[in-house]
Design a protein that fits this description.
Layout: H1 13-22, H2 35-64, H3 68-73, E1 75-82, E2 88-90, H4 92-102, E3 107-117, E4 120-128, E5 133-143, E6 146-154, H5 158-165
Parallel strand pairs: 1-6
Antiparallel strand pairs: 1-2, 3-4, 4-5, 5-6
Length: about 180
């Protein structure tokens, strides 16, 4: 389940500004706030938040449905996917190929989403693979409604990471590395 901070039932400008500061959102209006303008400002924040989150929801749905070309199309033309274990994949075609190869059989479960600033969103959750489940952080850097950079970081123990190193989910080239 995807968690997004709910909008409050705003009864005052103070309540709205407090809610916005808790969620790293900023009000742009310098007009005196009335109940009507507070409601309008809340609607504006909702629309902006939903527009920013739409590509994320679409990305998770597309990957889970194995529609890798759809997931890749959500990136900018020269977007970058920084996959676990340091693999960087650039461009929509390469991202689609990488996702088709590495995400087959995976299910992504984002559980909590945080808006860091107007262009950065972090989702925490887990990925269920055929052989294991691992905690993951997805950090989306957005340009308007496109993903410019997606950094995927495993929140795993050393033992879990050692298991991944030699699995099909490891990045290309990692199998040829020598041990230190």
């Amino acid at each position: 389940m995807l968690y997004v901070a709910p909008l409050p039932d705003v009864s005052s400008y103070g309540a709205l500004t407090k809610w916005c500061s808790l969620h790293n959102l900023y009000l742009t209006s310098s007009l005196p706030m009335t109940q009507q303008t507070a409601t309008q400002q809340t609607a504006l924040i909702t629309a902006e938040r939903d527009a920013l989150l739409h590509p994320l929801v679409s990305y998770f749905d597309a990957v889970n449905d194995q529609r890798t070309s759809v997931a890749a199309s959500l990136f900018c033309k020269e977007g970058v996917l920084v996959a676990p274990l340091g693999v960087q994949v650039r461009g929509q075609a390469e991202i689609a190929t990488y996702l088709a190869d590495k995400c087959a059989g995976m299910l992504l479960f984002p559980e909590q989403v945080s808006l860091i600033d107007s262009s950065t969103i972090v989702a925490l959750g887990h990925v269920k693979c055929p052989a294991f489940t691992v905690q993951v952080e997805w950090k989306f850097h957005m340009v308007r409604t496109e993903i410019a950079v997606l950094q995927v970081r495993l929140l795993a123990s050393l033992q879990q990471l050692a298991h991944l190193r030699y699995s099909k989910y490891a990045g290309r080239g990692l199998l040829n590395q020598t041990r230190a």
